[in-house]
């Protein structure tokens, strides 16, 4: 039987960094989920050096929060990530390129570091602990300002970019990535808020407000929402043709809309599907804790493997 | 050290079935490729029962062709395949649905059967023995009448449909699958021949003749070819965003065009790429033997695992 490990898990987000002291065992099955013993949050500062400095301070703080020595640190970051070498290859928002996170954080903390990608780690947590536990092939897709996916094939999160937010689904709108037609340019939460605002000539606080106006019968909200659903459906169908997932597990802020999102998305998929298996739609279970839990699993798995 | 195995490999194609008696060892590395001792070909007859009957006859014939007892049969078929259960889920051309190939061929031959998908098995052969040997993430994409791909992630062919021929790349043409905009509807070899014929108001024998006319400066051939290349490039970019392959290995009849295909495809990818890593383009090494070699590897791997 696997040992109980004590790890510090850190999820570096675009605006906020979450850290947690977590205990758990390798190969955590249902009924033996990791336990979060303490949590911390702080704003994220750009550049790799600032992130390592702040994460090292969080690690020192959380080391003092529990009675056990810490066995390892799990760190997940956004952007393009090279997991085997522990490198943050690129983040436009946070300003790094080929930054050696594992090496520098190990030097700053003296702890062993497991390094990964935030979306893939969150997907790993949904796969092991959340709403994808029974799935062999799945797409776990958090929808926030950005849209990306963890791709599960044969019960494993594969090491692949999963940039479903940046596949061209045929609409004419430009995207920040340089392409036109991206899923994210119509279905990302910031795009939904911006596009509704332009259409209704007003300002809204975010996609949740657009959802509220949709519930209240606002026709501009209905059009904006329909265009978002259409882009999501077309992106999901592309992935279905290539990877054949049994289910798409929707997470992130937009999934808080629940059936307001999944009902029209199911209908649109049914309209568009031809030869593909239409994947079941599910909502993610772990909310914004998925990234930290996934980082903890990466750290525990690293300890089990060595 | 792994034992040398003697297997019969069968690749059921849409029009022709190829079979071979092959000897090899598990985990065949460079320098220890499988050896083909005898080969047979015959036309493919539709329906699962006819395929099993004909394959059993080929197996009996090849069993008599070599001095060693045969350890197993590897069978690969087109269409939608469920490898773990040994089932041919669906083939429009060959007329089966949920047909139990492994069970029925084992009953007909008395041999153990390893069952797989023709494109994925061909990709496995390119990965272990051909032009993808050094690649960690790759797309191995035979282009014939149909277009599909074996998807390689972390040195493994993943168990996924890989239907890159049926992703929507935004053109208005209908496809036999029921969608519009499919890669195959512009870049499949039958589509190239048909679309050239319509444009030039003539008949050609196939895509190779369109390629010959392109070399000779025919402007209708140039337009048809350019549209095929454009569809292929957009399909490859979708896969690049999701899976990040280092290279795309092009096979099948259309890849016999060589630089006439890869040069404009490289240029078009360079024009379209934004954030994605532009995959290297390569030509497959194994030609139409890839499917049989892959079927042999499936059989040898099955024997090694048990």
Automatic annotation (TrEMBL), chains A, B:
SUPFAM superfamilies: Actin-like ATPase domain (SSF53067). Residues 24-48 are annotated as: Disordered. It comes from the Bacteria. Belongs to the ROK (NagC/XylR) family. This is ROK family protein. It comes from Saccharothrix lopnurensis. The lineage of its organism: Bacteria, Bacillati, Actinomycetota, Actinomycetes, Pseudonocardiales.
């Amino acid at each position: 039987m696997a040992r109980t490990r004590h790890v510090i898990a850190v999820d570096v987000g675009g605006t906020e960094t979450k850290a947690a002291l977590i205990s758990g065992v390798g190969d955590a099955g249902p009924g033996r989920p990791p336990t979060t013993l303490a949590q911390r949050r702080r704003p994220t500062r750009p550049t790799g050096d600032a992130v390592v400095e702040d994460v090292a301070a969080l690690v020192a703080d959380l080391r003092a929060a529990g009675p056990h020595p810490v066995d390892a640190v799990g760190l997940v970051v956004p952007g393009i990530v090279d997991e085997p070498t522990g490198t943050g290859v690129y983040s436009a928002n946070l300003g790094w390129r080929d930054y050696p996170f594992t090496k520098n954080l190990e030097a700053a903390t003296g702890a062993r570091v497991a390094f990964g990608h935030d979306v893939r780690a969150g997907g790993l947590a949904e796969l092991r602990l959340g709403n994808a536990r029974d799935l062999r092939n799945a797409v776990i897709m958090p929808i926030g300002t950005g849209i990306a996916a963890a791709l599960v094939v044969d019960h494993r999160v594969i090491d692949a970019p999963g940039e479903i937010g940046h596949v061209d689904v045929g609409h004419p709108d430009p995207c920040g990535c340089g392409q036109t037609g991206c899923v994210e340019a119509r279905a990302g939460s910031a795009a939904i808020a911006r596009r509704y605002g332009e259409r209704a000539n007003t300002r809204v606080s975010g996609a949740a407000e657009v959802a509220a106006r949709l519930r209240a019968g606002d026709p501009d909200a209905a059009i904006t929402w329909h265009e978002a659903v259409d882009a999501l459906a077309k992106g999901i169908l592309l992935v279905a043709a290539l990877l054949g997932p049994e289910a798409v597990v929707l997470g992130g802020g937009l999934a808080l809309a629940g059936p307001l999102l999944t009902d029209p998305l199911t209908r649109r998929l049914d309209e568009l599907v031809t030869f593909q298996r239409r994947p079941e739609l599910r909502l993610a279970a772990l909310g914004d804790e998925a990234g930290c839990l996934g980082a903890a699993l990466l750290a525990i798995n690293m300890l089990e493997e060595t």
